[in-house]
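Sequence in, structure out.
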Amino acid sequence: MRLSILVLAFLFAFTALPSRGEEGPAPKLGVLPWKGHAAAFSLTFDDGDPSHLDVAVPELDQRGMKGTFFVIANQIVREEEWRKLPVSGHEIANHSLDHKHAKELDPEGEKSQVLGAKNVLQKKFGIPMSTFAYPFVEITPGLKVWVQKTHLLGRGGGWGRDPILTVDQEPDWWDLPSRTTMTDLPLSVYEQWVEEGSRRGGWTVLMIHGLEGTVKGWEPISREVFNGLLDLLQKKDAWVGTLLEVGAYFRAQKVFERTAPKRTGSRWTWAWKVPEGTPSDMRLKMRIEPTSAPWELRQGDQVLRPDKEGTYEILFSKGSLQAGVLP
């Protein structure tokens, strides 16, 4: 009789215990900065200069690199050639309607140069315009408010501030710093830029105008120097991506890191708001901090499988992620 009571008491105690995952902390998920690379670089080209088509695109394609080309909506020449760039992974982006100085614009003009240009370019190219570069790097409150309303990212200049964005900071997404190439700068200067960006593990954006052979391009750099810069980047463990690719990933990382998980039964759920303009196919790379419990990650009905290095890819546009302990 006494043995039976003990057995019943043990069974009651066991069934009353919460199952794994019903108590204890949520798993710790960490986003891999720069898609797992040591640093990131974005090569951006201003004004839609024909030298970009003749020099930059072939050299980038040869090395498997992608660039961002900020074109002026009302000043596009060789339009059919520009149309081919997004197909091969390059970015066509907004550099205003007419490249006017900010002091020339009234409030309606500010709206037109940002939103009007975006509408023109989207109609011409049939793709979303998510990034903007300020003409002459002249950033006024009126221009910036329209960039904030209509674009995911805006590129500014780098004078008087740190030109490298590191993973421990959250930048002004509509005034991203950049470094400007100049005709008289030797390759050794660009080597210093690449070394510093790589050493600090940050994101460096380069603002490039004319290239060798240009007719009107501002501060053109030679093909030799440009190729040397690309070769330097190729030797590094660096993600050389478009402004949209790298910026959207970085911004999504910051969104996820601010998201607190909530428990629903035996599962944890992260839910976030996707910033407008984020590419629908953009994926964050993540790892789970090792624990004694085997965790399963899901997005909706899809079970996510890690690669051989234990890395998961999260489709950010879904806006949520679930985790539960495997039985």
